[in-house]
Amino acid sequence: MITNTPLSPTSRGAKRKRNGSSLVEPKPGIISQANDLELPSSIQQELDNLPDFPHRPLPAQRAFSPPQRAVTQPRSFKNQHHLALTEILHRSLREADFKRADRAFTLLLRLEHRGDTLDIRKDDNWRIAIEILLHREDGQQGAYAEGTGGPGKLAGGPDRSHRPFSRRAFADSKEFYQRLVLQYPYQRAHPKAISALTFYPAFFTLWIYQIQSQYHTARSDSTDMDMEHLSSPVSPRSRSPLSEDTKALESGGRDPCGRAIKDADEVRNRLADVLLMPPYDNDAQLLDLHAMVCTWIADLREEHISDESAIADLRAQASLSRARASQSRSKSNDGIK
Question: Of 187-196, 220-229, 241-250, which range is least confident?
């Protein structure tokens, strides 16, 4: 008679060994030792909070609960002062009150915020400084009033959209750009940082705009004076006075075109000196500016001086700079890909 008697663990193991199985029952002592191990409190707490661990169903969708915000500490006096000055600065710029914006920005530069002074390179602060330097002599609050023909017209005055800046404002801005270039040179270790590679294109663009605006203003003033002289021959004292830019151009010569050529040649020579140094020699923006300045001088020379050899040389330099700029852009695009 056969009875169903349970097999002992040893008999099971022996039977499996006889059948050639590789499975071996673990020893009871190992299980008891594993149960006696103590897990860290953080892990044990997470395990206790999990339902039916480790064989649990997928968690149901939970309702969105916004993250709990930390309790904000009361702002210090310095933080409040910094926020107030920043608000005054941007409101003054919006209202074109550049004198008040100049005072607010000066205080921000001297104020320590979170243990450090204002970084002129962050948040386009250097652009704000240039804008203030160029316009702080324009007049009192509300010079660019709304409803007077757009932002390019002064309230009750002529159109200033293409008028040059004053000589003092341009000189201050030029000196500020030169200080930025010396203080923040290009560093190969930080190629994406704001440095002289950022300041040079903006500086030369402003310089070119100033020369071109002076040239067009001087030509317009001279044309108006000629028309006024032909229409009503009156004494010279009763004529409209020359603008500051016209006097500046005519001080170096009666022809505004000759003065513009002289100033543009100065810009071209300065650009050529910068393009001799790496990494500026491969900068596409500076190369494009050099090509445009050479083309501009060539056009002015065709109008003023009939020097075919100099004009041909300028146009050759412009073509070479455009080719180098195109090559530089193709290399940068290949590097991105």
Answer: 241-250
What's the distance, Cα to Cα, between the start and end of the chain in Å?
84
Query: Rounded to an integer, what distance in angstroms lies between the CA atom of residue 269 and that of residue 263?
Result: 10
Predicted local distance difference test score (pLDDT) of residue 93: 93
| Residue 168: C-alpha distances to residues 126, 265, 291, 303 (Å) | 18, 21, 28, 30
3-state secondary structure the chain: CCCCCCCCHHHHHHHHHHHCCCCCCCCHHHHHHHHCCCCCHHHHHHHHHCCCCCCCCCCCCCCCCCCCCCCCCCCCHHHHHHHHHHHHHHHHHHCCCHHHHHHHHHHHHHCCECCECCCCCHHHHHHHHHHHHHHCCCCCCCCCCCCCCCCCECCCCCECCCCCCCHHHHHHHHHHHHHHHHHCCCCCCCCCCCCHHHHHHHHHHHHHHHHHHHHHHHHHHHHHHHHHHHHCCCCHHHCCCCCHHHHHHHHCCCCHHHHHHHHHHHHHHHHHHHCCCCCHHHCHHHHHHHHHHHHHHHHHHHHHCCCHHHHHHHHHHHHHHHHHHHHHHHHHHHHHC
Given a cut of 50, is residue 250 above it in pLDDT? no
Q: Cα separations (Å) of 212 from 143, 166, 188, 322?
A: 24, 14, 35, 21
- Residue 17: is its pLDDT beyond 70? no
Q: Which of 130, 233, 142 is nearest to 172 (CA)?
A: 130
Among 6-10, 68-72, 187-191, the minimum mean pLDDT is found in: 6-10
Longest dimension (CA), the chain: 148
The answer to pTM > 0.70 is no
